[in-house]
Amino acid sequence: MANRWLPHLWGLVTPAFTLACLVAGGWWMAAPLVLLLLVYPLLEVLMGQSTETDPLQEGRAHNLIVHVHALLVPVVLVALLWRVSLDGLTLPIALGVASAGLSNGASGIVSAHELGHRRPKSKSWWTARLSLFSVLYLHFTTEHNHTHHRHWARDVDPTSSPWGRSVYGHVLQTIPRQVKGAYRARPVDTRRSLMLEAAFLIGLGVLGWSYLVAYLGQAAVAIYLLEFVNYLQHHGLRRGEDERPNATHAWESRHRLSRWTLMELPLHPSHHLKASTPYERLDVHDEAPQLPFGYYGMFWIALVPPLFSKLMKRQHALSATA
Fold it and tell me: Do 34 and 263 form a contact (C-beta atoms < 8 A)?
């Protein structure tokens, strides 16, 4: 069908709504938090799952949507800094920082994973880099493409978490390990990226400490969201050094809302089996372990490590016997 891309427009609601709330100011800046953290998890359950895919569908509309995701990340950031210039650092601004971080994290996840796999130095690749620069995470493209996709579900991969590791412990150790991995893979590029980010932080600090605090705050939220997704996608799944990767080494989610708002990112096994495959052509894999909830529901469960661990191990056992 020609309109297969229409549900994926839903993902653009998050940055568009966040942008409108930042412009409105005041307590409106808390509204995106309500949408993403309360409304979406409930909708995700009500909307259920779907195995329907169309791997051969035409992708021009999907390509446009993912580029809009990437470009809206710096736009939301600029809107946040503009609001800070008007209001200073207040409680509503703090909520706006969190809202901007969640929005930029969601759009950044989509664009960094998809456009970051495009031809290096292409316009799409640079667009992904712009979205990552907006959240202080330029090294992600290098680490993701040269380390994660080579070693996913192995102990050496800093983004693949073993059983029993909490999301808090994972985030604290994966970030420095990823920076080191990016430096080992591309030392010159990584050094330049880190220097550019440092120069930008210094510039913001000179402009005003409130801008620096707001920028770092939204970046921290966005980075946490991105690393939560990394944490979720391979948790507890391990393969040996000589074992060929397959769909059992990544968690899949078929929940409609997660699939539509994140451009099919939850069909993660398919992405790993051929990283160059555009997201509109990803497919489901029956042998892949299935997440018990979509990404929005799993966000809350991951905040309670004992519950998360118990649920994931039980779900893995059920998937293995299905």
Answer: no
Span 6-42, pLDDT tens digits: 899 999 999 999 999 999 999 999 999 999 999 999 9
d(CA 299, CA 226): 11
Query: What are the CB-based long-range contacts (under 8 Å, 24+) for 38-44?
Result: 40/257, 40/261, 40/296, 41/293, 41/294, 41/296, 41/297, 41/299, 41/300, 43/257, 44/255, 44/256, 44/257, 44/258, 44/293, 44/294, 44/296, 44/297
As a 3-state breakdown, the chain gives helix, strand, coil percent values, each rounded to 5, of: 70, 0, 30
Cα four-point dihedral sign 68, 73, 77, 78: negative
Which of these, 231, 244, 64, lies nearest to 164 by C-alpha position?
Answer: 231
User: What's the rounded mean pLDDT across residues 38-61?
Assistant: 88
Q: Do the beta carbons of residue 167 and residue 231 sit within 8 Å?
A: yes
Q: Hunting for tokens 């995700």 — which residue is that?
A: 44
Cβ neighbours around 153 below 10 Å, total: 23
First-to-last C-alpha distance (Å) of the chain: 31
Say how many C-beta atoms besides its own lie within 10 A of residue 119's C-beta: 9
Whole-angstrom distance, CA of residue 271 vs CA of residue 149: 10
pLDDT band at 322 (very low <50, low <70, confident <90, very high): low
- What tens digit of pLDDT does each residue of 195-217 get? 999 999 999 999 999 999 999 99
Residue 307 pLDDT grade (very low, low, confident, very high; cuts 50, 70, 90):
very high
Q: Please, which residues have CB within 8 angstroms of residue 26's CB and are 6 or more apart in sequence?
A: 92
Would you list the domain boundaries of the chain?
Answer: 6-49+69-321
Is residue 1 over pLDDT 60?
no
